[in-house]
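hiii, so i know i said id send this last week but things got crazy w the move. better late than never?? heres the sequnce for the chain we talked about at the cafe, plus the structure i predicted for it. fair warning i was half asleep when i ran it
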Amino acid sequence: MDADTARRSLTEERDRLREMGAWSREHEPAVAVQQEGALGQHPGDYGSEVEETMERQGLADESERQVAEIDAALQRIEDGTWGRCRVCGQQIDDERLEARAQADTCREHADQ
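okay and structure toks below
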């Protein structure tokens, strides 16, 4: 994968993630989850509200984390270091970059 293709792909993914994160934040419950049993609320309803709130917050947080990874990859493209492993400096194989253009390590150092 070349840097121009990666830039386009990463930019599209960043836009998608930002939109998803914004949607999650816009659709958070208007009222904070109340204390269990407040106003005669059934405990099952309370649990559902808590779960939904946590899922939306988690989605928004994960979107932000992924956008930060993409921004870092776009910066590496600008710096001319994209496609090289940050640990050993070797070229990252095309298959890995096509699957995950924001990868900053080769397969050998993927866990680092």
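btw The mean pLDDT is 85. thought thatd interest u
miss u guys!!
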